[in-house]
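Sample entry (125 residues):
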Amino acid sequence: MNTELAEELNQQACNFWEAQDYPAALECFNRAISLCNCYPKLWNNRGNVLCDLGRYAEALASYDRAIGLKHDYHQAWFNRGVALKELGAYGNALESFHKAIAINPDPIYIHRKEEIWLKKKLIPV
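Predicted structure, serialized as tokens:
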């Protein structure tokens, strides 16, 4: 397991993701995971890219893997909720959001996530 190289690939993937080059980001995350598949941040980040690509079922599987590796990973729980919402599983999405808030009840975190949701227009009107 090469965690150092996996972290370098994670950073490269994040740079691609920020530049909205989602296919390149996904390729880097996949390579990083092939080197170190027990790193929850890689799975969570991979899920984020898959969400941006509209591949919500695959994103959900990545978030579930991240949560399986780190049960108190509030970001992965929140992101799982986003993927479930996009898949139309509103009740399960709400459960994931509640789990994220139970793990990290910080009002600043919650407010910031609400702003992100509204900006991405993820809340149905």
